[in-house]
Structure prediction request, 231 residues.
Amino acid sequence: MHIPDGFLTLNIIIPAFIITIIFWVFAFKKIKITEQQVPMMGLLTALFFAAMMLNFPLFGPTTAHLLGGATIGLTLGPFAGGISMTIILILQAFLFGDGGLTTLGANVLNMGIIGVLVPCALFLAITKIFKVREPGKKLFTIIFISAFAGDLLAAIAAGAELGLSSLSPWYGLNVAVPAMAINHSIVGVGEGIVTVVLIATLLKLRPDVLEKSPILDKLPFLQNKIDPEEE
Prediction:
């Protein structure tokens, strides 16, 4: 999903950078990280830095990879999650040439904003509608759906940017969007499973970290719990 330099035109590059810069400014003003979340932010950033470097060839001339936006967003919140994804994308672009500098705004928009905010928004909306009161199948199904949707919509956004930038009628929106959507609808299943496993593990082993999440702290069973370290 990393778009390299030379694949986007200025009519996509400039608006993408503007949206991304606005998000960065807003995120740095709103970000709140507790002492418990700092090590978790470093761990998740390192984990998905490595995971995103693994690209899997699927159908057609495209590859796909895990995003991690849902896990990072649900655990740290959308603003800290977006900054974490930005760090990953900047390091990948500068150190490994995975993605580009001119396309950094678009890549952050797709993976660091859409890929993080969509799962967070969906999770909040669905848990409120279905009134999730305890951990279980309902909660984990919602986490899966949120992660899947975030991955898929980020891929569709990338496909749209590539399609709108293409000067060839053979690689426009009608080709780029379906190619990205089909591949990442498959990877999205893996994204959902990984997100469920990681959140379920944290719920069992480190609920104190999730209690500090601006997203997961809305769940009734995480409210007013005692920090294990204080017991």
In short: The radius of gyration is 18 Å. The first strand starts at residue 56 and ends at 57. Residues 28 and 79 are 7 Å apart (CA to CA). Residues 10-230 form a domain with the Arp2/3 complex 21 kDa subunit ARPC3 fold (CATH 1.10.1760.20).
